[in-house]
Amino acid sequence: MKDNYDFSLSIQNPYAKRSKKQLRILLIATRQIGDVLLVTPLLRSLRRAYPDSIIDVLVYDNKGGMLEGNPDYNSLISVAEHPNFSQYKILFKRIFRHYDLAVSTLAGDRPLIYALLAARQRVSLVPAKRWQDAWKRWITAAYTELDNDSTHTVLQNLRLADLLGIKRYYEVVIPKADDSVLHNYFDWQQARFAVLHLLPMWHYKRWTISGWCQLIDYLLEMDLYVVLTGGNSEVEKAYINDVLLKQQSEKIINLAGKLRFSDVAELISKSQIYVGPDTAVTHLAAATGTKTIALYGPTNPVKWAPWSDKNNVVLVQGVGDCVPCHQEGCERHKQSYSRCLEQLDSSVVIREVKNELS
User: Fold this and answer.
1) Are 11 and 168 in contact (CB under 8 A)?
2) pLDDT at 21
3) DSSP states of 63-126 as a string?
4) What pLDDT, in 10s, does the model give residues 11-42?
5) What is d(CA 216, CA 222) in angstroms, rounded to the nearest whole number?
6) Is the CB of residue 283 less than 8 Å from the CB of residue 277?
7) Phi and psi of 160, rounded to 5°?
8) Which of 5, 37, 44, 176 is 20 to 30 Å from 338 at the Cα level?
C-alpha cells in the first residue's frame, strides 16, 4: 500500500484556515448502491472538517437512494453508467471547474476524468503502478493506491481523508425520511419479525431457494413474522414468488418493490434479526445495529464484509477449500453459479440465527 502525501503536507494548513469559508467540494462515488452507502464515513469526515463548505456527490443514475436524508452533503448529481454524448455534455456544463476540490473514491478512468474536469485540486484512489495509468498520478495533488485484497472499502475511502489531513469518522450513515410508509403494510411497531432479503443483484451471490424456504419455516416456528424486502424488477418478483409458492402463511409479508431505502432501514432497525446475501441491503442492515446474518460466497470479506462497530454482524461464508476465491462465481462472470453457496446447508444458517435470537 503506497500513498502520496505531497498534497497534505503542502496545502493542508491553507485548507484548514479556509474551513469556515465555503469551499466547493465534489465527492465522486460512481459505483453501485452499496458502494454509495460505504462512502458515507468519508462524506461525514469531509463535512465535519469543512462544516460551511458546499459538498456535492456525483453518483450513477438511480444509485443515490442510500443518501436520502443524509445531512452531510448539499446536492446529488447523477450521471448515466454509460453516458451518451448529450449526457456527457450536460454533466460537463454542470461540473466544469465548479469546485475547489474533487475527491474520487474510484481509480477508474472516467472518475479521474470527472475529477480533472471538476476541480483545480484533486485527490483520488489510483491503481497500482502501471505505465498506462501514470497520468492518474500526474493529475492528482495526492493519491493512495487501491488495495482490493486486504483493506476494507470503508478504510480505503478514509485514506483519502488522511491525504487531506482531516479526522476520520467511521460511522456508516443510514438513509432517513420523515414520512415512513411502513404503517401501510402491517403493525410493524408491535409485531416480532425477521427481515429477509433474498436476491442480490448478481447471480453468483445467490443462496438457494430451498435454503430460504427452510429458514423461513424455522422463523415461523419461532413465532416470528417474516418480512421480505427487495427491488421491483421482474427477475426479483419471480424469484420471490417461487419462494412464496412453497410457503403458505399469513405471517409472510412481501414488501419487495414497495419501500425506499429509508423505509427498509427503519424496518430492519425494528426487527429481531436480518438475513441476507452479499448485497446493499445487508450493508444497510449492519449499519442499523440490528442482528445481521450475512451470507457470502466467493466475495472477499476482508474487503466487502458488512461494516459495523456494534458487534452485530455474523458472516456465514459458503463452503469449500477455494472460499473465498475473490472471483465472480465458478464460471467467472456475474451470472455464474457459485458452488460454495449452492452447497451452504440451511442448518448452518439456522444455527447462527438461533444463536443470535437466544
Assistant:
1) no
2) 59
3) --GGGTT-TT-SEEEEE-SS--HHHHHHHHHHHTT-EEEEEES--SHHHHHHHHHHEEEEEEEE
4) 343 444 444 458 999 999 999 999 999 999 99
5) 10
6) no
7) -70, -35
8) 37
Q: Which H or E run contains 221?
A: helix 209-221
Give me the helix-helix angle, 209-221 and 346-357, nearest 10°.
30
The model's pTM: 0.92
d(CA 344, CA 83): 40
Cis ω on the peptide bond leading into residue 324 (within 30° of 0)?
yes
**What number of other Cβ atoms are within 10 A of residue 195's Cβ?**
27
All three cell numbers of 83, joined, read: 453516458
pLDDT tens digits, one per residue of 162-213: 999 999 999 999 999 988 888 888 887 788 999 999 999 999 999 999 999 9
Grid coordinates belonging to 152: 476494507
What would the pLDDT profile of 127-155 be if each residue is shown by its tens digit? 988 888 999 999 999 999 999 999 999 99
How many degrees, rounded to 5, is the angle at CA 231 between CA 230 and CA 232?
A: 130
C-alpha cell at 335: 451470472
Instruction: At 198, give phi and psi (nearest 5°).
Output: -85, -35
Rounded to a whole number of angstroms, the CA Rg of the chain reads 21
Per-residue pLDDT at 13: 38
**Three-state SS at 174:** coil
Q: How far is CA 294 from CA 255, 284, 307, 312, in A?
A: 20, 11, 11, 11
Q: Which residue type, as a one-letter code, is found at position 22?
A: Q
Q: Residue 226 belongs to what H/E stretch?
A: strand 225-229
Task: Point out the least confidently predicted range of 22-26, 243-247, 285-289, 301-305.
Answer: 243-247
SS3 percent helix, strand, coil of the chain, rounded to 5, is 40, 20, 40
Q: Are 228 and 264 in contact (CB under 8 A)?
A: no
Distance between CA atoms of 7 and 33, rounded to whole angstroms? 30
Q: Which domains does the chain have, with CATH numbers?
A: 3-164 (3.40.50.2000), 182-357 (3.40.50.2000)
Contact residues for 14 (Cβ-Cβ < 8 A; gap 6+): none
φ, ψ of residue 269 in degrees (nearest 5)? -65, -25
